[in-house]
Write a sequence for this structure.
């Protein structure tokens, strides 16, 4: 089955209720994350109940949920339906608020399927505050360095600042841009290849940088989720005359890889299982 191309249909929609995936079985053994980074006290991999508690504490309104539904079918006609809560968020001010550049505190979690107990795989926060109430970029940087030490990368340009903390399979990456350059060779077929250079955990490489689950079979080399990169924590600051924007993005690629492998495995096992005949009125 793993060598066969499978077709998948994806539907995405906003829901106020809870999406479920009763055809996936939760696995245990989610180990503590090796890095110290947190967003409002949470890390990817924390129980979804901790996320619920945080959202209840910070917002009286019910969170907005995005549901993802997948239908995957094998060449033999065996189908697997997956329905799960893909994202959960609070503090969204809507299109009109964004166009008006209104203040906001918007928090979003990208969630795993039931295979990983709906635990967050990535956490995002967007703060838009009046500039006179926002910290100076240097003050924010000092606070982050007090918490986590020197970043892996710092970029300052005009009114903007970017800090990145990167954690690889060998631990903290002290200099993101100073790592050795690696080369990825893509087979284009017909004895043709393409070379792309990359550094571990750095943006713009040839690999998949998304943590949300997407089924694909077969997967090719460039579908790999950020190889050798465990997690990144990116903080960006954009100053403005009236409103300044601060963004936090904590993404765990290792959890995403493990989640993908487990979910893929359960789906492939289900598609390979015996099929019961239908009971139509013929």
């Amino acid at each position: 089955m793993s060598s066969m191309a499978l077709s998948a249909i994806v539907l995405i929609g906003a829901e106020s209720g809870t999406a479920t995936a009763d055809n996936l079985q939760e696995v245990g053994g989610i180990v503590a994350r090796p890095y110290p980074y947190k967003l409002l006290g949470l890390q990817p991999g924390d129980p979804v109940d901790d996320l619920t508690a945080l959202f209840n504490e910070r917002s009286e309104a019910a969170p907005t949920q995005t549901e993802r539904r997948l239908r995957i079918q094998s060449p033999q006609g065996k189908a697997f339906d997956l329905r799960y809560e893909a994202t959960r968020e609070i503090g969204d001010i809507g299109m009109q608020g964004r166009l008006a550049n209104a203040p906001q505190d918007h928090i979003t979690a990208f969630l795993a399927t039931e295979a990983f107990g709906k635990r967050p795989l990535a956490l995002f926060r967007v703060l838009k505050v009046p500039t006179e109430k926002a910290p100076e970029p240097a003050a924010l940087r000092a606070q982050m360095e007090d918490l986590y030490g020197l970043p892996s990368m710092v970029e300052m340009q005009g009114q903007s600042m970017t800090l990145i903390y990167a954690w690889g399979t060998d631990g903290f990456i002290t200099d993101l841009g100073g790592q050795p350059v690696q080369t990825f060779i893509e087979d284009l077929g017909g004895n043709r290849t393409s070379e792309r250079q990359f550094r571990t955990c750095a943006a713009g490489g040839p690999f998949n940088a998304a943590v949300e689950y997407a089924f694909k079979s077969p997967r090719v080399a460039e579908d790999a989720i950020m190889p050798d990169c465990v997690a990144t924590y990116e903080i960006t600051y954009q100053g403005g005359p009236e409103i300044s924007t601060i963004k936090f993005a904590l993404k765990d690629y290792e959890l995403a890889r493990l989640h993908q492998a487990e979910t893929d495995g359960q789906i492939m096992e289900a598609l390979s299982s015996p099929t019961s005949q239908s009971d139509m009125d013929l």
Q: What stands out?
A: The chain has one domain: 7-271. Residues 80 and 167 are 35 Å apart (CA to CA). The chain is about 15% helix and 35% strand. Residues 15-22 have pLDDT under 50 and may be disordered.
